[in-house]
Write a structure and sequence with these properties.
Number of domains: 2
Helix content: 25-40%
Bound molecules: adenosine-5'-triphosphate, magnesium ion
CATH architecture of the largest domain: 2-Layer Sandwich
Strand content: 15-25%
Number of helices: 8
Distance between the termini: 11 Å
CATH topology of the largest domain: Nucleotidyltransferase, domain 5
CATH superfamily of the largest domain: ATPase, nucleotide binding domain
CATH class of the largest domain: Alpha Beta
Structural class: alpha/beta
Shape: globular
């Protein structure tokens, strides 16, 4: 009997994502959980939960592809594929007009340029510096005492964003704190910080060229302030798919589908 499902797992630095597809590439289910230490246990628990939700057993997975920073620790996968390839594949599947994909995760950011067939023709990556990543936003949201889920909406309330001149996360945090101490409104500091991360990310994207359509993936795409700042600064429409955090896992599941189908 042919096995009915295909699994993609993305073990990131902060979260683990998994996507299950059926034989027709249709979405069966997907999920996101905190990675915890290393991500392996969280990944196993997430996959077990998703299979249970669909009434499937591990034996019914035809093929598993794992991607992400923690991919080497997921022993049950059939194959590992790079995050660049998986984000590109997931994004192109969701929107074949996409030519630039920007993934902003917890600890790195990447920009990829695709051709009309969805092949990656160029990419650039920042994994050396927290500025331009979700970590920057988490540090700043904590400094301003705002939940990360509300940080972007707060920035959108600003009418007079402050300029944040430091590019380094540590110095930008001190700068933000000194603005707060001087009585600058919280939303204006938040907006300045969102502009700072947007210009950092656009600097990275400029290395591959920002050809339309531009899609933003990764958890930071859930931040409406980042999406708005990117769009304003680049003068481009930024497409955010329905569940941007799972696009890499979707790409992994699509690789699994291609390898495992008979
Ligand atoms: N609900 C939310 N609202 C706003 N931002 C969010 C939300 N959920 C997550 N984020 C942002 O997404 C980031 C995590 O993104 P993601 O889950 O893509 O990271 P990751 O894949 O584990 O990391 P990496 O790819 O760098 O290894 C957090 O740092 C945070 O800034
Ligand atoms: Mg990631």
């Amino acid at each position: 009997m042919t096995k009915p499902c295909f699994l993609g797992v993305d073990i990131g630095s902060l979260t683990v994502k998994a996507v299950l597809l059926d034989a027709g590439q249709r979405l069966l289910t997907r999920g996101v959980v905190p990675a915890g230490y290393g991500g392996q246990e969280a990944a196993e628990a997430l996959v077990a939960r998703l299979l249970r939700e669909c009434g499937l057993t591990p034996d019914e997975i035809a093929y598993t592809v794992v991607t992400g920073y923690g991919r080497v620790r997921f022993a049950t996968a059939d194959e590992e594929v790079s995050e660049i390839s998986c984000h590109a594949r997931g994004a192109f599947h969701l929107c074949p007009a996409v030519r630039t994909v920007i993934d902003i995760g917890g600890q790195d950011s990447k920009a990829m340029r695709l051709d009309a067939q969805g092949r990656v023709v160029d990419f650039a990556m920042n994994d050396k510096c927290a500025a331009g990543t979700g970590r920057f936003l988490e540090v700043m949201a904590a400094a301003l005492d705002v939940p990360i889920e509300q940080f972007g909406a707060l920035a959108l309330q600003s009418e007079h964003p402050v300029a944040i001149s430091s590019t380094c996360t540590v110095f930008a945090e001190s700068e933000a704190i000194s603005h707060i101490a001087r009585g600058v409104a919280k939303q204006d500091v938040a907006a300045g910080l969102h502009q700072a991360i947007a210009s950092r990310v656009l600097g990275l994207a400029a290395r591959v060229g920002l050809e339309a359509e531009v899609m933003l993936t990764g958890g930071v795409a859930l931040n409406v302030g980042v999406v708005a700042a990117l769009s304003r600064q680049s003068n481009q429409r930024i497409t955010v798919p329905a569940d941007p955090q799972t696009v890499g896992a979707l790409g992994a599941a699509l690789y699994a589908w291609h390898k495992g189908r008979r």
